[in-house]
Amino acid sequence: MTRSIAFVTALAASGLFASAASAGYYNATPVAAPAKPSLIAGSMMWKCDGGVCTAAKATSRDAIVCEQVVKRVGTLSAFTANGAAFDEAALAKCNTRAK
Q1: Structurally, how many domains does the chain consist of?
Q2: Which position among 9, 36, 64, 77 has the lowest Cβ density within 10 Å, counted as fewest Cβ atoms?
Q3: What's the CA gap between 86 and 67, in Å, rounded?
Q4: pTM for the whole thing?
């Protein structure tokens, strides 16, 4: 138990634990970084940091989630859902909904 606590403490101090915890189910990379660090798109809270916006899993299809965030942040250069990146065709289709 003591070793586990020491390990978690070491991870938190190194920043590795924090960056792993901040990764979302969805990751959207807008071409232009949003002005605010958080936004609501499709009734989902998105947190943006370092040019990437993340959100928890939704009940909508991944393509719908992409279209919802594009309507708020504009064209995306990348979008992933559960670690799987949208291919070029899927991303282009999503970007047609950009504001």
Answers
A1: 1
A2: 36
A3: 12
A4: 0.76
Amino acid 55 reads: A
CB atoms < 10 A from the CB of 2, how many?
A: 6
Phi, psi of 92 (to 5 degrees): -60, -40
The model's pLDDT over 23-76, given as tens digits with 9 standing for 90+, comes to: 799 999 999 999 999 999 999 999 999 999 999 999 999 999 999 999 999 999
Other Cβ atoms closer than 10 A to 46? 25
Let me know if 20 is exposed, middle or buried by CB neighbors in 10 A (0-12, 13-18, 19+): exposed
Q: Are the C-beta atoms of 56 and 24 separated by less than 8 Å?
A: yes
Look-up of token digits 């990751």: 27
| 61 belongs to a structural domain | yes
Token code pair at residue 61: 């299809």
Place of tokens 């978690």: 8
pLDDT at 4: 42
Domain encompassing residue 68:
23-95
Question: What six digits make up the tokens of 12?
Answer: 């938190």
